[in-house]
Amino acid sequence: MENILQKAAEIAAEQKKRKFNFNKLYAVACMAASAVVSICLIVWAVKANF
pLDDT by residue (tens digit) across 1-50? Predict the structure, then answer.
């Protein structure tokens, strides 16, 4: 019985770690996307001015 509980706790910890990594990845992807959008806006503004 104790082994099953320990195994369940390990699986839960592993999933929490994976979830955290996914959230970090999502945050990085969002930052990259906003950077690309701002660069595109700057380029578009420069092209519109010249």
Answer: 689 889 988 988 888 887 877 888 889 999 999 999 999 999 999 998 87
- Domain positions in the chain are 1-50
Radius of gyration of the chain (CA): 22
Q: Print burial letters for 16-43: b (CB count within 10 Å at least 16), e (below 16).
A: eeeeeeeeeeeeeeeeeeeeeeeeeeee
pTM exceeding the 0.70 threshold for the entire prediction: no
